[in-house]
């Protein structure tokens, strides 16, 4: 088969479409004939040499895919060859075939085409596990989403609104904020021109955000704590703004607030399977009903993954970038 390989870490040109051995599904796995994958920030970090796959995972990038089941490994039940699926991966999505633990498979939602389905697994599992399973967002609460125009952000806006929350977002510039508003965002903050702490306080009557979904890490840590409401929950899922920050424990205690930091890729299989099952139960009906949708900025041939990475790194996109086989 062909897959995107990274012989030496570097820029987008390090991504090479090459002949590689076919994967073989192990016990509890299925082999998926890939129709599409999607580009995530983690793929960029892997390409640059900063984010190695966990032990036992495919060395090729790609944390999600869609396609058709080509073969079943030993012990797999509930799936059949030919089923159209999408999947959460620890790696290997940038390829013509990938072996996937059965617990990380999802059926393609009703009303979604096979290629577009590749835009769903990573963002939906990330948002659902952090905003709902960990931070416990409830109807009537306020959710602040940093990077509202990203793949994660566009999904978080929609899921927040679907459960009856008020959603605030930060994004760069009026065009991106307008797209966030179209998805349902109530409070719009241009981080280039405005202080999100001040805007949020004004919009919430001084209360702040009950839940914050943060991709920036250290750069926003202190301000995020300032922006939290009493009993607020800060969920850190990215480190684009650095890894080391100063945390005012006094402010955290005064608000009886919590800070969590999670990643998805290296979690044990049973934890990933539990998240995927929760997504199938709670989110897939929303997708089928048209209340939540994948936002796709552009589609590229898999062999042109380098160009998709350039677009992602330019931050000119809104939503997801897909790669098709």
Succession of helices and strands: EEEHEEEEHEHEHEHEHEHEHHEHE
Secondary-structure-based class equals alpha/beta
Rounded average pLDDT: 97
Characterize the main sheet.
7 strands, mixed
Strand tally:
15
Give the overall shape.
globular
Radius of gyration: 19 Å
**What distance separates the N and C termini?**
11 Å
Q: Number of helix segments? A: 10
Assign a percent range to the helix content. 25-40%
What portion of residues belong to β-strands? Answer: 25-35%
Low-pLDDT stretches are: none
Structure, described:
- The protein has 325 residues and is of the alpha/beta class.
- The chain has 10 helices and 15 strands.
- Strands 3, 4, 5, 6, 7, 14 and 15 form a 7-stranded mixed sheet that branches. A 6-stranded parallel sheet has the order 10-9-8-11-12-13, with helices on both faces.
- Strand 9, helix 4 and strand 10 (187-190) form a beta-alpha-beta unit.
- The protein is globular and about 55 Å long.
- The mean pLDDT is 97.
